[in-house]
């Protein structure tokens, strides 16, 4: 696949907008594996379901607004090329690893690194290393080459449209935020809207960055094989992680007690700094699963929505194989953690 820096950078900005908004307004970290596990197996809170709804409905919104031609790669075609057994194995590993390691790429890499969390630095380093090793050891000869000389530069009109999407998303969320802050007695359903919109923005950001396409993800992980390397996802660091770091410094500077934008929420950012065996082993297991299929919890849910929108039953079966296996892995890991 060609190098798509503009689209991926714009997608990274949407990831930044969604995660930073959720953090400053609700005090919550956008850790998708934890939210997914909590909705299914633990607290079953409404805000968690609102986030999952936003992630799954992103493809429907993108299709309705005609945004699909802007998304690099072809996630559903890539998913169709991966066998069910491989997807199921990857799903189990991602599920177990994300629970033992207390997070995935969203919670640790996108959000944790920006907070300079020692646990997230270790987890990201471990799962990225094991993912790179796994991706470079599997099926490189059967993949089409990815010439890094192919640089896909969209037209001025498309670039303007990309950044208009980013601006509209920011304005829409801020308008709703102002309304809810001025009306703290708003209905419970309306209070769930910011969580849904943040997740919807995150979903579109994943699609626009190319992170929903397994081949594009594994192309980034295969930098040891120049013929298959796609450096696009490095732009997520510039569009997502670095702006998140600046935002976190701004909202935590000179504050003895953290306050949230919404009065019904409180600051819930993790404060643990210890590095234990569960974190390291879980991150390692997660990285193997991620490198094996190029999918983690967020992209899996977005692709689930995309398969429904396209009514592609073959791809839907593949995504369901990964998602159900991931659920089984999370459930198994939770049982292990409770038994310790």
From TrEMBL:
Compartments reported by the entry: Cell inner membrane
Stated name of the protein: Sulphur transport domain-containing protein
GO terms for cellular component: plasma membrane
Membrane topology: Multi-pass membrane protein
Keywords: Cell inner membrane, Cell membrane, Membrane, Transmembrane, Transmembrane helix, Transport
Transmembrane spans: 75-96, 116-135, 155-173, 194-212, 232-251, 278-301, 313-333
UniProt organism field: Kwoniella newhampshirensis
InterPro entries per record: DUF6691, Sulf_transp_TsuA/YedE
Short name of any one Pfam family annotated for the protein: DUF6691
Leader sequence segment: none
């Amino acid at each position: 696949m060609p190098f798509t820096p503009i689209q991926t950078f714009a997608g990274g900005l949407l990831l930044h907008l969604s995660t930073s908004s959720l953090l400053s307004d609700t005090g919550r970290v956008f850790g998708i594996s934890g939210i997914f596990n909590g909705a299914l197996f633990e607290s079953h809170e409404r805000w968690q379901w609102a986030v999952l709804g936003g992630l799954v409905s992103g493809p429907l919104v993108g299709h309705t607004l005609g945004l699909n031609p802007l998304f690099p790669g072809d996630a559903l075609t890539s998913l169709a090329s991966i066998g069910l057994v491989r997807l199921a194995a990857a799903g189990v590993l991602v599920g177990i690893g994300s629970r033992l390691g207390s997070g995935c790429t969203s919670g640790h890499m996108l959000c944790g690194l920006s907070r300079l969390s020692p646990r997230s630095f270790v987890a990201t380093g471990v799962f990225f290393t094991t993912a790179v090793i796994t991706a470079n050891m599997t099926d490189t000869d059967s993949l089409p080459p990815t010439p890094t000389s192919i640089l896909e530069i969209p037209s001025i009109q498309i670039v303007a449209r990309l950044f208009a999407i980013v601006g509209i998303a920011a304005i829409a969320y801020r308008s709703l935020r102002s309304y809810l802050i001025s009306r703290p007695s708003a209905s419970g359903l309306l209070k769930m809207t910011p969580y849904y919109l943040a997740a919807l923005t995150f979903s579109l950001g994943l699609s626009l960055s190319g992170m929903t396409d397994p081949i594009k993800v594994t192309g980034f992980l295969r930098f040891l094989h120049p013929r298959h390397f796609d450096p696009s996802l490095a732009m997520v660091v510039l569009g997502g992680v670095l702006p998140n770091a600046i935002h976190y410094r701004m909202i935590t500077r000179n504050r003895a007690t953290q306050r949230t934008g919404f009065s019904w929420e409180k600051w819930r950012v993790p404060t643990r700094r210890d590095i234990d065996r569960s974190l390291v082993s879980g991150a390692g297991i997660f990285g193997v699963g991620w490198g094996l299929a190029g999918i983690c919890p967020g992209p899996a849910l977005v692709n689930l929505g995309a398969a429904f929108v396209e009514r592609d039953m073959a791809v839907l079966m593949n995504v369901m194989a990964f998602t159900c296996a991931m659920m089984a892995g999370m459930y198994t890991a939770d049982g292990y953690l409770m038994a310790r």
